């Protein structure tokens, strides 16, 4: 039996941005639903953070999610198993009040899991582990210890894995708790990362600048072989364009319509030619355009920022290589939080 695994869809993200929902929809229309039909998949496992805000939902975002995702799955006869994540749990210390349960009760094909439970798919039993909090920690730990399941799927915050490219989580639970399992699959972190036993499968699409050039999509899981296969999303939202006296006449701008573009100026000898280059980008229909003429951060003699690195990677490495007499992991976590908040405001 083949099932689809998807996680961290964040419907209503970026303040219910139409630009991003249109971008999300292209993935669902061109990649997700055609793959379900082609593979004959009738079961979807949603590993959490289906909606973006744990405090509320914009009515138009809810309408979008129902019209473009849940109604279609119901019409296709697809059963949806939804694990509660931290973005869908209203309180931080319990999963009892959660968005997926409250918003999706009209769908008989949607089952919501706010607490850990064993669920059978064909001949395979899987342990579902929703967001672990103060209320369910002990019960979750006990079930993990006694379950006969070889496979676990959940929404976990474990240390030692990449929260996003360039940043490895040092907070979170110790992954040793899950040593008994053959494989563990998780949502929560948006980038793909694994240690050959625990797999963070990532989210379906780019949402922030730190997602740039990071492979996204969903996965097909075979319950007989316990092998997962990535189905990648070919569509991007964010683009870096490097200008080095680039000819505007030959520069192809077709990929940038309704995209967010950053032009990094490496060399600009003729201001008028550069203006024509920028005008061509604007005429292609970009949604947002930024120009960065001083790309590199201030460097010391011993530190070099590479253009292949994203901003957060540069900052983390700068902190790591500095000689400050402070807890570097704490500083990196503060920078990460500030950077993420800044990205969400853009």
What does this structure look like?
- Mean pLDDT is 91; it is low at 297-301.
- The chain has 3 domains: 2-232, 4-Layer Sandwich (Purple Acid Phosphatase, chain A, domain 2); 237-295; 301-346, no CATH class.
- With 346 residues, the protein is α/β, with parallel strands linked by helices.
- The protein has helices spanning 13-16, 18-39, 59-75, 99-103, 137-146, 271-283, 311-321, 328-345; strands at residues 2-6, 43-46, 79-83, 110-113, 117-121, 124-129, 151-155, 162-164, 167-168, 183-187, 193-194, 198-200, 217-222, 227-232, 238-244, 260-267, 288-292.
- It is globular, with a radius of gyration of 22 Å.
- The two termini are 42 Å apart.
- A 6-stranded mixed beta sheet has the order 4-3-2-1-13-14. The protein has a 6-stranded mixed beta sheet with strand order 5-6-7-10-12-11, with helices on one face.
Query: What is the CATH superfamily label of the largest domain?
Result: Metallo-dependent phosphatases
Which strand-content bin applies to the residues? Answer: 15-25%
Question: How do the strands line up in the largest sheet?
Answer: 4-3-2-1-13-14
Rg for CA atoms: 22 Å
Please name the CATH architecture of the largest domain: 4-Layer Sandwich
CATH first level of the largest domain: Alpha Beta
Number of domains: 3
- Overall form: globular
Q: What gap, in angstroms, lies between the N and C termini? A: 42 Å
Low-confidence stretches: 297-301
What class would the helix/strand composition place it in? alpha/beta
What is the H/E order? EHHEHEHEEEHEEEEEEEEEEHEHH
Number of helices: 8
On the 0 to 100 scale, the average pLDDT is 91
Oligomerization category of the chains in this entry: single chain
What is the helix fraction of residues, given as a range? Answer: 25-40%
The total of beta strands comes to: 17
> Main sheet, how many strands, which sense, barrel?
6 strands, mixed
- CATH domain topology of the largest domain: Purple Acid Phosphatase, chain A, domain 2
């Amino acid at each position: 039996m083949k099932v689809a695994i998807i996680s961290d869809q964040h419907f209503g993200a970026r303040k219910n941005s139409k630009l991003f929902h249109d971008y999300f929809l292209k993935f669902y229309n061109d990649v997700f639903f055609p793959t379900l039909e082609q593979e004959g998949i009738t079961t979807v496992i949603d590993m959490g953070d289906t909606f973006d805000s744990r405090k509320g939902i914009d009515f138009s975002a809810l309408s979008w999610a129902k019209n473009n995702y849940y109604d279609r799955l119901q019409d296709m006869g697809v059963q949806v198993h939804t694990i509660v994540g931290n973005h869908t749990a209203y309180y931080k210390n319990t999963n009892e009040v959660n968005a997926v349960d409250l918003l999706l009760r009209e769908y008989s094909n949607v089952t919501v899991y706010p607490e850990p439970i064993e669920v059978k798919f064909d001949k395979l039993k899987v342990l579902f582990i929703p967001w672990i909090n103060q209320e369910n920690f002990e019960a979750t730990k006990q079930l993990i210890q006694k379950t006969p399941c070889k496979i676990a799927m959940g929404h976990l915050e474990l240390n030692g894995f990449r929260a996003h490219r360039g940043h490895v989580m040092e907070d979170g639970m110790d992954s040793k708790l899950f040593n008994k399992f053959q494989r563990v699959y998780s949502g929560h972190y948006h980038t793909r990362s694994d240690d050959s036993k625990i797999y963070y499968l990532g989210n379906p699409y780019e949402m922030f600048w730190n997602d740039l050039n990071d492979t996204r999509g969903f996965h097909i899981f075979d319950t007989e072989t316990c092998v997962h296969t990535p189905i990648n999303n070919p569509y991007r939202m964010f683009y870096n364009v490097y200008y080095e006296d680039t000819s505007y006449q030959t520069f192809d701008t077709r990929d940038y319509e309704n995209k967010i573009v950053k032009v990094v100026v490496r060399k600009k000898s003729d201001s008028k030619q550069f203006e024509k280059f920028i005008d061509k980008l604007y005429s292609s229909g970009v949604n947002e355009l930024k120009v960065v003429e001083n790309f590199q951060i201030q460097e010391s003699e011993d530190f070099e920022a590479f253009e292949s690195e994203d901003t957060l990677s540069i900052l983390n490495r700068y902190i790591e290589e500095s000689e400050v007499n402070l807890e570097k992991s704490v500083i990196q976590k503060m920078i990460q939080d500030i950077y993420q908040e800044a990205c969400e405001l853009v």
